[in-house]
């Protein structure tokens, strides 16, 4: 389940990010991007400046490109909550499966849509892709709540959610390679759309909502999971306690951390290829290769951080709450500082790539930090909690690309420096909120209604007894 969940996220991200590379070849390059003006670097593109306009001919300015890249997230945030609720009620297998399948089909139609509908058609299609992918994390969170014991959540969560980095690696590296070899940007959409459909077929055959419904699980593993998860989990959750959830301070602290993470992450994912082609002047193959490197390091670091976090909790070196806060802080402050240093490294490409790679590597600590915190707060409503947290955080996916497009009309170092300062400020402010009010403890509203009722029946006589003693 963990491996197929990992591949689900990886496929979702390849289909999401391949446009970030392809768009650099879809648009007509402007003359100022090839000039040695203030804040621009000489590089690979100068050697091919003569054929730059022959590669593609769509006349989309930076603002239009920002709208296209952010369009995905308009649909993405809409299906988070319905996807989470459906996953809790009926299981996450098909809530996740059909979401990824629909995204794969839309990905296959991308070249045709661009040819017939231009920028407007592509924007609409990206919104539809976002609608399909919005169920991914809520459904996976609901399934992890039924498959991952507390002592294994750091590692399983890091493995599954770390699929995002493999998706980014494949989406960026293979996109650059395939476009270079075929000479056509359309090929990447055919490749990743087909792989997404293949994943769905395997998912439908191999994976199930919970251990009870899995026909191939061993009795030993099934018994272990029942004992490990039985204390925290109700097989049929009662009505969702909306008021208690929205009044929960730890939940809103988690939302703040998610906003900070997503803003920095989406800034890197959607716009790092544009920085490499627009500022550092890398060619498409070099951009694909070097843009993939930070995500490879982030994936490896997320596994290391996950193992480290679980061991610290097991040995009682850190409480669950302090572990979540510690690793979230590492993943907030470290990447922000590395981004700033990279922006002041000028055209020293080796230093810039090293710093961006270090930035994403430190961001891997988010997975055993705030990314699995929703499971700590509530296992019964994990899908709904992830939908709220991830859905609100995903709004930054709309803001970040569009804001970058507005702030970098000429794609110079000075303009990009402001982008990274804003990212650092968002990282620090949201992390301060998380450190102040986050919790790694199960929340009272996670318990079934009947358990809360029993608890109240126990507490009321005790209170009356105390009052009687005081009167006497």
From TrEMBL:
Subcellular location, principal: membrane
A GO molecular function held by the record: symporter activity
Membrane-related topology note: Multi-pass membrane protein
Record has Nucleotide-binding as a keyword: no
PROSITE patterns the UniProt entry points to: MFS
Gene Ontology cellular-component annotations: membrane
Key words, A-Z: Membrane, Symport, Transmembrane, Transmembrane helix, Transport
Subcellular location: Membrane
Residue ranges of every copy of the Major facilitator superfamily (MFS) profile domain listed in the record: 1-442
GO biological process, alphabetically ordered: monoatomic anion transport
Keyword Cell membrane listed: no
Name the record gives this protein: Putative inorganic phosphate cotransporter
Organism per entry: Papilio xuthus (Asian swallowtail butterfly)
């Amino acid at each position: 389940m963990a491996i197929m969940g990992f591949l689900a996220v990886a496929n979702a991200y390849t289909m999401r990010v391949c446009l970030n590379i392809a768009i650099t070849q879809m648009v007509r390059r402007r003359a100022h991007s090839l000039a040695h003006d203030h804040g621009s670097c000489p590089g690979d593109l100068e050697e091919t400046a003569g054929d730059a306009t022959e590669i593609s001919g769509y006349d989309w300015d930076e603002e239009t490109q920002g709208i296209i890249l952010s369009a995905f997230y308009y649909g993405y945030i809409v299906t988070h909550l319905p996807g989470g609720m459906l996953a809790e009620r009926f299981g996450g297998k098909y809530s996740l499966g059909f979401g990824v399948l629909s995204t794969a089909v839309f990905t296959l139609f991308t070249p045709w849509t661009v040819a017939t509908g231009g920028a407007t058609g592509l924007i609409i299609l990206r919104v539809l892709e976002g609608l399909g992918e919005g169920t991914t994390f809520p459904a996976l969170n609901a399934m992890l709540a039924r498959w991952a014991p507390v002592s294994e959540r750091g590692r399983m969560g890091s493995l599954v959610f770390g699929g995002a980095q493999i998706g980014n690696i494949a989406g960026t590296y293979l996109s650059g390679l395939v476009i270079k070899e075929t000479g056509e940007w359309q090929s990447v959409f055919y490749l990743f759309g087909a792989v997404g459909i293949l994943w769905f077929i395997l998912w439908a055959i191999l994976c199930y909502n919970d251990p009870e419904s899995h026909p191939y699980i061993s009795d030993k593993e099934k018994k272990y999971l029942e004992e490990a998860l039985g204390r925290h989990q109700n097989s049929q959750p009662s009505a969702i306690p909306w008021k208690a959830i929205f009044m929960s301070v730890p939940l809103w602290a988690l939302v703040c951390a998610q906003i900070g993470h997503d803003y920095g992450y989406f800034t890197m994912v959607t716009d790092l290829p544009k920085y490499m082609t627009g500022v550092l002047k890398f060619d498409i193959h070099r951009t694909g290769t070097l843009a993939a490197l930070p995500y490879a390091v982030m994936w490896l670091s997320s596994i290391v951080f996950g193992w480290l976090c679980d061991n610290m909790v097991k040995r009682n070196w850190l409480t669950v709450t302090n572990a979540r806060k510690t690793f979230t802080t590492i993943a907030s402050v470290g990447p922000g500082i590395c981004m700033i240093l990279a922006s002041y490294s000028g055209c020293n490409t080796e230093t810039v790539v090293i710093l961006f790679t270090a930035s994403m590597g430190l961001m891997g600590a988010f997975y055993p930090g705030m990314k699995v915190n929703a499971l700590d707060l509530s296992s019964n409503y994990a899908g709904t909690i992830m939908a709220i947290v991830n859905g609100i955080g995903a709004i930054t996916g709309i803001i970040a690309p569009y804001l970058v497009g507005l702030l970098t009309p000429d794609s110079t170092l000075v303009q990009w420096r402001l982008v990274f300062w804003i990212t650092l400020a968002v990282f620090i402010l949201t992390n301060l909120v998380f450190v102040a009010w986050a919790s790694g403890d199960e929340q009272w509203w996670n318990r079934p209604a009947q358990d809360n009722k029993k608890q109240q029946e126990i507490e009321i006589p005790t209170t009356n007894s105390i009052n009687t003693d005081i009167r006497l």
